Amino acid sequence: MSNTDPSSDKIRFHCTSCGVRLAAPAKHGGATIRCPKCESELPVPVTSEPDPAALRREWSLARCPSCEEVSKVRAENHDRPVVCASCGEAMIVSA
Ligand SMILES: [Zn+2]
Ligand SMILES: [Zn+2]
């Protein structure tokens, strides 16, 4: 597979037994491997675990100008009107 980006061809996950970070080729998704650290057998997930830092970046907190309720707003909705879940007023959230 010379035409595949090697960095995107890896599944990243943690050993369920000892917690060490592991990476396996994507083609091993769903297979069982042996942890190189604690030697327990564990299944390789089919997709990478979500990176918690990346998830945090996808959300920001916005304070509603009308009712001051704080809402979580997805990054994809930044600079667009979102409706406050508390009072129903539309507000613009900046990144
Ligand atoms: Zn382990
Ligand atoms: Zn509000």
Describe the structure.
It is a single chain. The protein folds into two domains: 9-43; 52-92, no CATH class. 6% of the residues lie in helices and 34% in strands. The protein has one helix and eight strands. Bound molecules: zinc ion (2 copies).
Write the layout of secondary structure elements.
Elements: E1 10-14, E2 21-25, E3 32-34, E4 41-43, H1 52-57, E5 59-63, E6 70-74, E7 81-83, E8 90-92
Antiparallel strand pairs: 1-2, 3-4, 5-6, 7-8
Number of strands: 8
> N-to-C terminal Cα separation, in Å?
39 Å
Q: Strands of the biggest beta sheet: in what spatial order?
A: 1-2
In the residues, how many domains can be counted?
2
Structure class: mainly beta
Low-confidence stretches: none
Residue-averaged pLDDT, rounded? Answer: 86
Global geometry: elongated
Rg from C-alpha positions?
A: 20 Å
Supply the number of helical segments: 1
What are the bound molecules? zinc ion
Order of helices and strands: EEEEHEEEE
Residue share in helix: under 10%
The major beta sheet can be summarized as: 2 strands, antiparallel
**What is the percentage of strand-forming residues?**
25-35%
Keywords:
mainly beta; two-stranded antiparallel sheet
Summarize this, please?
The protein has 95 residues and is mostly beta strands. It has one helix at residues 52-57, and strands spanning 10-14, 21-25, 32-34, 41-43, 59-63, 70-74, 81-83, 90-92.
